[in-house]
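seq:
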Amino acid sequence: MNIELTEEERYLSAHISDLAALSLKTGVPRFSRFLNEREAMIASYAARTSKANPYFYGGYDGAARTVCGFFDGTYAEELPKDGLYPLCAVTFSFRRGAGLSHRDFLGAILGLGLQRSAVGDILTAEDYALVFCTEESAELILGLEKIGRAGVKAANGVLRELPQTEFSRAVKSVSSLRLDCVVCACTNISREKSASLIKSGQVSADFSVCLDVSAIQRAGGVISIRGYGRYRLSEIIGETKKGRVRVAIDKYI
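struct:
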């Protein structure tokens, strides 16, 4: 894996390798904490380096934050995996118009003394929210009665449909698929300023800081730009008559 790891990430890599070995040795499935997308990428590489097969699940298909599980060679090898993860969901209901956001819920949950790694995705809608968490943290989270200034009611399980992640889409033309060109299209700032952001370490491509302004971007890639937000290069549509590349860019709302 051609990315530089921090000390904490090296510890995570070693921990994942230990979990893989322990599951095989004991015949019992082993699970990590919740991982963000970069951590999951590191975990996947560490597991495969150990010749293990990692399975990632965050409580529903398509979750951004997931738990890495190891099942091969264990009693659960042939069982459906989803129900084996030590995860819970909590459904919060609140009055319509309360305006509660992901940040509001995360702040209240961390205020209980829980670590971020105990909590998975937090999906919010107009009058309800779904919080995915570890089994041991569920009891504390279920005790929340107020988020921000709004009263909430918490119940165990997924009791409402999953709110969908919202994007705003824009179709742009770029001179090439270089990172500085794509950042320029995402933010509507100059190419020079885009290059400056990249060189100063403020841009991540596919969950890793990228300092190379000329790095070619692929369809489906995720770009995070500090101070501007998170984007997905969702589609490369084709070339214009002038030889520029038409792309569809989604911004996470």
